[in-house]
Amino acid sequence: MGTKDINVNGKTVNPAMEAGIQVGDIIISINNKKVYSSDEVEEAFNNNNGTDYVITVKRNEEYKTYTLTPVYLDNEGCFKAGMWVRDSTAGIGTITFFNPAEGTVAALGHPITDVDTGEIMPILNGEAVETTVTSVIKSTNNETGSLCCDFLSKSIGSLVKNTQRGIFGEYTAQLDMSVCSEYEVASPQETEKGFAQIICTVDENGPQVYSAEIVKISYNEDVKNMIIKITDDALIEKTGGIIQGMSGSPIIQNGKLIGAITHVIVNNPLKGYAIFAQTMLEESEF
Question: Which of 94, 142, 143, 283 is buried deepest, with most CB atoms within 10 A?
């Protein structure tokens, strides 16, 4: 997730950067031994007496191998590689659509980022699981609220892409199409200011339809294509507006899927940004 300079005997060095390792690389193995957690990476660097390490990483769907020489810090009694490693993350979001023709699923409309660095988290293996809503923390003008959920053991798909336009993968669970609603994806030019609807789950009753309004449309932005305002009294009473966990909530207008909610606007939780559905559909192809 990042590289860090190390001060050794008055000199500044960065073993990871000097070796060629970059932010966003997925560490596959160290000295031909596969590693799956940050603890295993730390253990590997402290069990080899500081000799050179052969590190294989995955970068942009390609595998690359580098030689890294860690440095020893007397005051800490350990070797340092100069890189910040994160092994996993988890979060709650809303599925925007399932494309039965391709078997693909899209969600969020924005990337999953590291909580400390803000960098987009690369995916080696990702899993989507069902959740149940347990409670809601309402948004206010001072703080964004959130859905509180329990993760269930049922896996519904695999995640393979995490991009600026959302997370994407394959839906593997059995889907009952008789209870699903099918929508044609609207082109950006079909989107209009005015009345719209969003579909989201904020309690144990499952997905519900709520009223909203498209107040601004931008064709020049890559992801912040619309500003949407929540107008449904029932949803405002329940959530205070847009909350964390609603990202990816589908937006319907004139019987078509036009986009997905992505972010709340700071200090005004009734409004938020949205991305065009067509943009997410194009990104879902892999």
Answer: 94
Distance CA 66, CA 253 (A): 51
**Helices in the chain by DSSP H: which ranges?**
15-19, 38-45, 233-239, 277-283
Summarize pLDDT for 223-266 with one digit per residue, the tens. 899 999 999 999 999 999 999 999 999 999 999 999 999 999 98
Dihedrals phi, psi of 35, to nearest 5 degrees: -125, 145
DSSP code at position 113: B
Find all residues with CB under 8 Å of 215, minimum gap 6, and list them.
Answer: 193, 227, 228, 229, 271
Arithmetic mean of pLDDT, 151-166: 90
Alpha-carbon distance of 46 to 126, in angstroms, equals 29
- The more confidently predicted of residues 8 and 171 is 171
Cα–Cα distance for residue pair 266/275, rounded to 1 Å: 17
pLDDT at 48 over 70: no
Residue 272 and residue 261 in contact, taking contact as beta carbons nearer than 8 Å: yes
Q: In this predicted structure, what is the pLDDT of residue 230?
A: 97
Spatial neighbors of 180 by CB under 8 A, at least 6 apart, are 98
Residue with tokens 């079909």: 190
Q: Say which amino acid occupies 156.
A: I
Q: Cβ neighbours of residue 121 under 8 Å, at least 6 residues apart?
A: 1, 86, 89, 111, 112, 113, 114, 162
Q: Identify whether the C-beta of residue 278 lies closer than 8 Å to the C-beta of residue 185.
A: yes
Q: Are strands 250-253 and 194-200 parallel, antiparallel or unpaired?
A: antiparallel
| Catalytic sites, residue numbers | 110, 232, 247
- Count the Cβ atoms, other than its own, within 10 Å of residue 51: 9
